[in-house]
């Protein structure tokens, strides 16, 4: 079972874009369209008052019947722990998950291995999955090494997960722009 898009079934959808581009709202709209139980897997952690307010705004934006699972690091475990009955999962957001892994001291290759492992689990999962992630590589080159490392890893992780997706969207000023994941450059 999966999200319906016209006559097609979608299993993995990746939504990317800049900050405040409408990614989470669009993910929620897609999940509601699927007509199945929704589980929202939140990777954000409360680290300060501003983040607490952001998380609360996100909670209020979701329908009350949706289940929320808070998991900062072990996304594979969170997905495996869900019942076998197919659902629609929203994982919001991959770049916060990446940040959490970096904060725990994981090396780059370990993070990429975990992203590949996540991709494998997503492909085997009975659930339809909507991934929300930020596009952070379109701006200037960051000034410090940590910010450059984050930008580069976000690009790598996003590519790994995009390779698993049947649908890709880039959000620009609240408008979803669909990208063909099978397009090959000449």
What features would you highlight for this structure?
Rossmann fold; 186 residues; globular; single chain; seven-stranded mixed sheet; 23% strand; 6 helices; alpha/beta
- How much of the sequence is in beta strands? 15-25%
Mind telling me the CATH class?
Answer: Alpha Beta
Strand order of the largest sheet: 5-4-6-7-3-8-9
Tally the helices: what do you get? 6
SSE order in H/E notation?
EEEHEHEHEHHEHEE
Radius of gyration, whole Å: 16 Å
Query: What is the fold named in CATH at topology level?
Result: Rossmann fold
Could you tell me the mean pLDDT? 90
CATH architecture: 3-Layer(aba) Sandwich
The rough form would be described as: globular
Measured between the Cα atoms of the first and last residue, the distance is: 34 Å
**Derived structural class:** alpha/beta
Work out the number of β strands.
Answer: 9
Helix content: 40-55%
* Total of domains: 1
How would a crystallographer describe the biggest sheet?
Answer: 7 strands, mixed
- Give the name of the CATH superfamily: P-loop containing nucleotide triphosphate hydrolases
